[in-house]
Amino acid sequence: MPLSDDQQSEIATLRTSPQSTLRAVSPGMEKHLYTAHEVLDHGFVRVVDYMGDDAAIVQAARVSYGAGTKKSRDDSGLIRYLMRHWHSTPFEMCEVKLHVKLPVFVARQWIRHRTANVNEYSARYSILDREFYIPAPENLAAQSTVNNQGRGEVLTGDEAARVLEILKTDAGRSYDNYEAMLNQEGQKGLARELARMNLPANIYTQWYWKVDLHNLFHFLRLRADEHAQYEIRVYAETICDIVADWVPAAYGAFEDYRLGGVNLSAKALDCVRRMLKGEDVTQETSGMSKGEWREFEATIA
């Protein structure tokens, strides 16, 4: 169960006690408040609080650019202009606080984005639940033979069963030993801060993660990408759906210019111009390395 009984009770109380407000409200985001969107086998993402909307981005931009911009482009057009020209400050006027439940190994990858405020569940003070991420069979894959940090062919049959059994057995054994070492029920045992070191990286943790929209877009650009690791990508995709409801104009621009767009180097742009003039450009005449040329061909294919 992604949410504990106490968390569900807390959410139910908050949902039945709405408050009137004079602050800007995003109708699309309101429907996500206190709703846990399930991710993986035991994880979730839920919105705890947010600040701002598309109008807040426009408001901040017009403070910088002056009232004259109102006459030359509508709000959506201004937001697209800001995104297109990498004017990031107005997007920082919006913030969101998320409650996320995720496997520890995903959390350690996630925390590399150091532009957010984080408060994580502490196993120094509390006992972690017996919940582990066990991949679905279709997500069990061998190491890629062409990418040192990617997955290759999906495991099947006896090999898939063998790996799943190892994952389940090791996780259960580690947790059994964790419980056996704890200082509880009259047993002297180990302090919680020491006993936790025996837990596997697929055990679930939780945190509150607060971030502004500019840095959230940077996170999503990397982690919602098709090349990102599956286990963090599904969290990013869930957050994408939430952000699309929260700031639809900003997310539309982000989807167009970042998720669906590409950046070309000066050499790549020169090759495109030469191709448009009818020149037969090859890797040898492009000025690019073999790796760059391979990526360039994939981009324009």
UniProtKB/TrEMBL annotation:
For this chain's record, the cofactor binding note is:
Binds 4 FAD per tetramer. Each FAD binding site is formed by three monomers.
Q: Which residues bind dUMP?
A: 109-112, 120-124, 196, 223
Q: Which InterPro entries match?
A: Thymidylate_synthase_ThyX, Thymidylate_synthase_ThyX_sf
Tell me which positions the record assigns to the signal sequence: none
Catalytic machinery residues: 223 (involved in ionization of n3 of dump, leading to its activation)
> A single GO molecular function, which one?
NADPH binding
Q: Could you state one GO biological process linked to this protein?
A: dTMP biosynthetic process
List its EC numbers.
2.1.1.148
Keywords (alphabetical) are: FAD, Flavoprotein, Methyltransferase, NADP, Nucleotide biosynthesis, Transferase
Q: What class of enzyme is it?
A: transferase
Q: What is any Pfam family matched here?
A: Thy1
Report which reactions are catalysed by this protein. dUMP + (6R)-5,10-methylene-5,6,7,8-tetrahydrofolate + NADPH + H(+) = dTMP + (6S)-5,6,7,8-tetrahydrofolate + NADP(+)
Q: Which residues does the annotated region (Disordered) include?
A: 1-20
**Methyltransferase keyword on record:** yes
Question: Residues that bind FAD, according to the entry?
Answer: 89, 112-114, 120, 212-214, 218
Cofactor(s) needed, names only, are: FAD
Q: What pathway annotation does it carry?
A: Pyrimidine metabolism; dTTP biosynthesis
Description of how the protein assembles with itself and partners: Homotetramer.
What this chain does, per the record?
Answer: Catalyzes the reductive methylation of 2'-deoxyuridine-5'-monophosphate (dUMP) to 2'-deoxythymidine-5'-monophosphate (dTMP) while utilizing 5,10-methylenetetrahydrofolate (mTHF) as the methyl donor, and NADPH and FADH(2) as the reductant.
The family annotation for this protein states: Belongs to the thymidylate synthase ThyX family.
Record HAMAP family: ThyX
Q: Which PANTHER family match?
A: FLAVIN-DEPENDENT THYMIDYLATE SYNTHASE (PTHR34934:SF1)
Name of the protein this chain belongs to: Flavin-dependent thymidylate synthase
Task: Please give the organism.
Answer: Aliiruegeria haliotis
- Annotated gene: thyX
